[in-house]
Specification:
alpha/beta; seven-stranded mixed beta sheet
């Protein structure tokens, strides 16, 4: 396990506290719609942190060519129809470039600044000329509207139970996922980034915001900051 990360519940738990069985049950949501609206049809996509393939499978059905990256072999065993690469995102080098690099699941909020920088460098390293990085940010009140819960139409409850500071601007977040037949928990570290801090973090690695894709600012389309490299 990574320091500060843990998970409980049935089945395999990944190094960042995610439960494979849990993520196999979670619905995909509207993320594929957001991606499809922001990029050209049939684009080559590098999905960083694919997990079990919730988004992967939907994007494949929509005609995208997807390479799925995750550090958990147990997660990647659930992915069907895409090339898979097992490794830490901040260290991966596929040796190719892609039209779209997808960084969902709030991974840009990694508690360790060097991990975040490494993740963003991976995005840039794999970005084809004219390509874009699609990034999912936390909501503005993610760390302050606590405790909170959401009952999903599929019949399970997601709770953010606590958010506790652990120093250096990093919070420890504890979440619960309650199903009728099982309960999973996850504790992970997250660094809050307001819009200015987020854009500064992108700029450090040669990226700039092209546009915010959703009204809440949680989905962002980023491109190379240097016009000559776009």
């Amino acid at each position: 396990m990574r320091e500060g990360y843990e998970g409980t519940g049935p089945g395999a738990i990944t190094p960042d506290g995610c439960a494979v069985e849990l993520y196999s049950r979670l619905p995909v949501g509207d993320e594929p719609d957001i991606v499809a609206a922001a990029v050209k049809p049939g684009a080559r996509v590098l999905e960083l942190g694919s997990g079990v393939g919730r988004m992967t499978h939907e994007l494949l059905e929509r005609g995208f060519e997807v390479t799925a990256v995750d550090e958990s072999p147990e997660m990647l065993e659930r992915v069907r129809g895409a090339r898979t690469i097992c490794g830490r995102i901040e260290e991966v080098d596929v040796g190719e470039t892609f039209d779209v690099v997808l960084l969902a699941s709030f991974l840009v909020h990694a508690g360790d600044v060097e991990v975040r920088r490494g993740i963003l460098r991976t995005c840039v390293r794999h970005l084809a000329k004219g390509g874009c990085v699609l990034i999912q940010r936390e909501g503005e009140d993610y760390h302050t509207d606590v405790p909170r819960e959401r009952v999903d139409p599929a019949g399970f409850t997601v709770r953010i139970v606590s958010v506790e500071p652990v120093g250096d601007g990093v919070d420890s977040v504890h979440a619960e996922y309650v199903f009728p037949d099982a309960v999973w928990t996850q504790t992970f570290r997250s660094r809050p980034l307001d819009r200015e801090q987020f854009e500064e973090a992108l700029g450090e690695e040669g990226l700039g915001v092209d546009r915010y894709l959703t009204a809440d600012g949680m989905w962002v389309r980023a491109v190379r900051a240097d016009p000559g490299q776009r």
